[in-house]
Amino acid sequence: MGLVVQKYGGSSVADAEGIKRVAKRIVEAKKNGNQVVVVVSAMGDTTDELIDLAEQVSPMPTGREFDMLLTAGERISMALLAMAIKNLGHEAQSFTGSQAGVITDSVHNKARIIDVTPGRIRTALDEGNIAIVAGFQGVSQDSKDITTLGRGGSDTTAVALAAALDAEVCEIYTDVDGVFTADPRVVKKARKIDWISFEDMLELAASGSKVLLHRCVEYARRYNIPIHVRSSFSGLQGTWVSNEPQGDQKVEQAIISGVAHDTSEAKVTVVGVPDKPGEAASIFRAIADAEINIDMVVQNVSAAATGLTDISFTLPKTEGRKAIDALEKAKSVIGFESLRYDDQIGKISLVGAGMKTNPGVTAAFFEALSDARVNIELISTSEIRISVVTRADDVPEAVRAVHTAFGLDSDSDEAVVYGGTGR
């Protein structure tokens, strides 16, 4: 008997019919001889609706009570799903994140998992039950308060439970048939990938691909948990994410795995920074002390006449105001002239492990953007990724142009998006 962890996103359990459809799939896995643990997100747009409600009550809802509110969504869906499974003649028990043993740090709204102690889950499985766990949540190791894990938290919950329970696979069910060479909402001819390495998936996730979040993939790589990304709306095979190909999948990986894009970032430019040792350190220390994660960083060549330079970096739009405030407070120490903030940008990234040994990839990438008349503002590279920042309005056309230029377009049926959110 194998142990399988399944995760269902909000679009999969958006309504009563969706919950009943998911329940049938779970029961089928149980009938196939597996022990089954299910991690479930809140129904549809429930979390967004709760956030809107909180903002109507309080202009800046944060902290303990905000987490207490948001975790209600998953508790509703887990209980309803357990009821639907019981109606099909199988026993199911639902558990909150804390009951499932998901232990986190004390950072509200974006807590990180410290440990998973799934004693009650193991007991439920030993008794022949299906275990339903509320995703996106845990309990603080120090304060014992309820915490939420932030964006993609349910995926991370699922992989963490799979690791703690030594599961054979973690199945992530969403509203597309797997991981595609680009977002099928933007590129209709995007092609489904049968297998992708953890390394390439991490780069795609970090570059804006929303099917799997970076934290989830990193956790899976650390504990070597194979992930199978599938649609809950079809019975098709999805995409395997692992160290090695599964079964008869191709051993030799393609040069390019895919094209990712991200329009959730903003750009901050620190203008007139003295070009001397320690200045960049002061800027990024101020950002780090404000607990802000940054992405791309570019420093211009300093002007000979003034000895001043500009430093630009990208960060989540949601952190923009906090970053500007932090830099303004440190202005007397750093000594820059002014700050510029731009939230109308987008990032396009080309990802593939084969890029390392194939000359001409960089040239073809920039030629495709040039032919599409897309202007580039920032450039960042790694061994398996090239990323550029452009105007947000140029992103869809840029993604399609690069996708076509590298022969990634499918010559068969167009990709199907069963839901509307990608989660």
TrEMBL record:
The keyword Transferase applies. Gene3D superfamilies: 3.30.70.260, Acetylglutamate kinase-like (3.40.1160.10). Substrate binds at residues 47, 74. InterPro entries: AceGlu_kinase-like_sf, ACT-like_dom_sf, ACT_Aspartokinase, ACT_dom, AKii-LysC-BS, Asp/Glu/Uridylate_kinase, Asp_kin_monofn, Asp_kinase. GO terms for cellular component: cytosol. It comes from the Bacteria. Its EC number is 2.7.2.4. Residues 268-344, 350-423 form the ACT domain. GO terms for biological process: diaminopimelate biosynthetic process; homoserine biosynthetic process; lysine biosynthetic process via diaminopimelate; threonine biosynthetic process. It holds the Pfam family AA_kinase. It catalyses: L-aspartate + ATP = 4-phospho-L-aspartate + ADP. ATP binds at residues 7-10, 174-175, 185, 210-211. Keywords: Amino-acid biosynthesis, ATP-binding, Diaminopimelate biosynthesis, Kinase, Lysine biosynthesis, Nucleotide-binding, Transferase. Pathway: Amino-acid biosynthesis; L-threonine biosynthesis; L-threonine from L-aspartate: step 1/5; Amino-acid biosynthesis; L-lysine biosynthesis via DAP pathway; (S)-tetrahydrodipicolinate from L-aspartate: step 1/4; Amino-acid biosynthesis; L-methionine biosynthesis via de novo pathway; L-homoserine from L-aspartate: step 1/3. One of its GO terms (molecular function) is aspartate kinase activity. Catalyzes the phosphorylation of the beta-carboxyl group of aspartic acid with ATP to yield 4-phospho-L-aspartate, which is involved in the branched biosynthetic pathway leading to the biosynthesis of amino acids lysine, threonine, isoleucine and methionine. Belongs to the aspartokinase family. This is Aspartokinase. It comes from Streptomyces himalayensis subsp. aureolus.
